[in-house]
Design a protein that fits this description.
115 residues; mainly alpha
């Protein structure tokens, strides 16, 4: 009787353990399936973001090229303006000297005309 009781206790304990294992197996398989699905979603996100980053990198390179061109254009325009200013200043000085000389000549002629 004692042996049968121990055997029965062992069978009950084994059944409980087997049920625990079966339940745990189902839970773990479900968790693995969910994790694998999540991994696929994350891989798709990574691929999408990588493509986006590549596109933005390309756009940045294009903008850098534009900025370099515009900077060169600006520097060239500044040099042209500096040359134009120097030419204007020289011409203005020449004209100012000519006007001054003409005014002095007119004054001399007026003075001679009165004498």
């Amino acid at each position: 009787a004692k042996g049968k009781e121990e055997k029965h206790q062992e069978q009950v304990q084994f059944a409980a353990y087997k049920q625990f294992c079966d339940d745990t197996t189902v839970d773990k398989k479900r968790a693995i399936a969910e994790a694998e699905e999540n991994i696929e979603v994350l891989k798709a996100d990574i691929e999408s973001h990588t493509a986006h980053a590549e596109r933005l990198t390309k756009e940045i390179a294009e903008h850098d090229a534009d900025i370099a061109t515009w900077k060169g254009d600006s520097e060239a325009a500044s040099k042209v303006r500096a040359i134009d200013k120097a030419n204007y200043d020289a011409l203005h000085k020449d004209y100012s000297e000519s006007v001054d000389a003409l005014q002095r000549a007119i004054a001399v002629l007026k003075k001679q005309a009165h004498d």
